[in-house]
Write a structure and sequence with these properties.
The longest helix has 36 residues. The strands form two sheets. This protein has a five-stranded mixed sheet, with helices on both faces. Helix 5 links the parallel strand 2 and strand 3. With 506 residues, it is α/β, with parallel strands linked by helices. It is globular. The chain has 17 helices and eight strands.
């Protein structure tokens, strides 16, 4: 590492200390913003009101901007899921040479969840003999998962080219117990099989699916078609649209709004692929995975980190290609309402811990490379601004933004700014309602048909649930994001938490 910091009087800091400063920067900026907003509300309320007005104007413009992208992305998604991609793929040369390595990690997952995911692979419109399926288990769950894996291997083993079961050992040095370490171990075991079979790396696409991931019937056909038509296919990952629809009719309204908001965020980002990171279930070239040494085993956000590993390894020549094809997963649902709320909070906190990518990017971008400085700055800004807004915007808009009006004597202040601010903010918030309306309409249209008939009012609830958005933005948005960035700032690092999955009888 060529990054050095020289201070007067010969003072030097270790690399660890310098990296800790980068880790503290996102959380420090969040707390500085919130404390300044509260402090100005008492010390200089007119200034605070001016800041809130500017921030609200910026946020409404951003909402309208994002909603425009969301509408365009949904239109393309709606069009492409209707196409027979297998038929289009079969006319391409050498399509039959492509193999798909599918890694499914599991830790304490119910058998019904894993069975549903594996069974979905039998329903895809693609030859299953092109699939190398790896069920990645953990030794710390051996007593339960070994007999379960044996049953699944017996049931599905003959359906694919091969069905491998791997067992990740406990307490390997330098690892965090979690998904990243598990799939890295599974990937290396899969490589051993691939080498034994003398299979060419450049004809293998690897997909990492969460245990509850259900592939759309067209997923692998679409992926193969996209892959073969990409002249730089070995330098890009492929990101599908995550839909949390497996149990959407059984989950709580709050959980549905949180899950669908995540879908809409990524769906809108597909129209701006320069901002895309890999998230949750996705696909990538096996050559790239081998080149970077598989997933890092000491991070929580391994899904986005693998993209950055490739970006840095290939000196900026690595991208994310959006796929307008869904992967369906579970909405948070537990045995009780309280447990569901806790699990939802922990899931968002884990996702928000992606803030750990900022110091990793900043540190590596300081090394000499052919990656243009402008691109480094843009990537860093996108990462920083996204995490910063996640933590601060909902609180500034809904709570802190009204504080100066409560502590300031509006009647005694004759300034035009102060007198007109409440009305302006009210109208801005009404304008932002358009985003909520668009979200309600698109989310309802995208809903899967329920497995059994539902009453009309349940469809109405699916629309009206979006009135809960302000609550979810704070409780399952700002607060877990602030906690994650504060933990990173203080060095109280977050371990990997596996989302609990519970299915109703239906």
């Amino acid at each position: 590492m060529n990054f050095s910091l020289r201070l007067p009087f010969g003072v030097k800091f270790s690399e660890r200390t310098r990296y800790r400063w980068l880790e503290a920067l996102p959380g420090g900026c969040v707390w500085l913003t919130l404390l300044l907003a509260v402090g100005l509300s008492f010390a200089a309320p007119a200034w605070a009101i001016g800041f809130i007005l500017l921030f609200d104007v910026y946020w409404v413009i951003r909402v309208l901007y994002v909603m425009g992208y969301l509408a365009l992305a949904y239109r393309r998604y709606h069009r492409e899921i209707k196409i027979n991609w297998l038929a289009k793929t079969k006319v391409l040369p050498a399509w039959e040479n492509i193999l798909h390595l599918i890694i499914i990690p599991t830790f304490k997952e119910p058998e019904s969840v894993l069975d549903n995911s594996l069974n979905s692979l039998l329903r895809v419109a693609y030859p299953q003999q092109k699939f190398i399926v790896v069920l990645a288990t953990e030794r710390r769950d051996a007593a339960v998962v070994q007999p379960l894996a044996a049953r699944l291997q017996k049931k599905y083993g003959a359906s694919f080219r091969t069905f491998l079961v791997t067992e990740h050992p406990d307490d390997l040095v330098g690892e965090i117990a979690g998904k990243g370490a598990n799939i890295a171990w599974a990937g290396r075991r899969a490589k051993e099989y691939i080498d034994q079979q003398h299979l060419p790396y450049d004809q293998i696409i690897v997909s990492t699916f969460d245990a509850d991931s259900v592939a759309h019937p067209q997923y692998f056909s679409y992926l193969t078609y996209t892959w073969l038509n990409n002249p730089d296919r070995w330098h890009t990952s492929y990101q599908p649209i995550p839909l949390f629809h497996n149990n959407v009719w059984d989950a709580m309204a709050l959980m549905r709004v949180v899950a669908t908001s995540t879908t809409f965020w990524l769906l809108g980002e597909t129209m701006r692929p320069d901002r895309l990171f890999t998230f949750s279930s996705h696909s990538m070239p096996f050559t790239a995975l081998v080149d970077v040494g598989f997933w890092q085993t000491d991070v929580v956000s391994e899904d986005s980190r693998i993209f950055l590993q490739c970006l840095i390894h290939y000196d900026g020549r690595y991208t994310v290609t959006p796929m307008y094809m869904p992967i369906s997963m579970d909405t948070i649902q537990a045995a009780s309402i309280w447990r569901s709320l806790v699990n939802q909070y922990k899931q968002i906190r884990r996702w928000a811990y992606g803030a750990e990518n900022f110091p990793y990017m900043a540190w590596n971008f300081m090394s000499p490379s052919s990656l243009p400085g402008s691109k480094k700055i843009r990537l860093l800004w996108n990462q920083f601004e996204g995490m910063y807004s996640w933590a601060t915007a909902p609180l500034l808009i809904t709570l802190v933004g009204w504080l100066p009006f409560q502590v300031h004597n509006l009647a005694a202040d004759n300034s035009i700014l102060v007198q007109n601010a409440p009305l302006v903010i009210q109208r801005l918030m009404l304008g932002a309602l358009s985003g909520m309306i668009i979200s309600a309409v698109i989310s309802t249209v995208m809903l899967p048909h329920p497995a059994k008939p539902v009453a009309w009012y349940q469809w109405a609830i699916m629309v009206l649930q979006w009135l809960l958005l302000p609550v979810t933005m704070i409780v399952f948005g700002s607060i877990p994001a602030i906690e994650s960035q504060t933990r990173l700032m203080l060095g109280k690092y977050l371990g990997f938490w596996v989302t609990e999955k519970t299915r109703s009888a239906s």
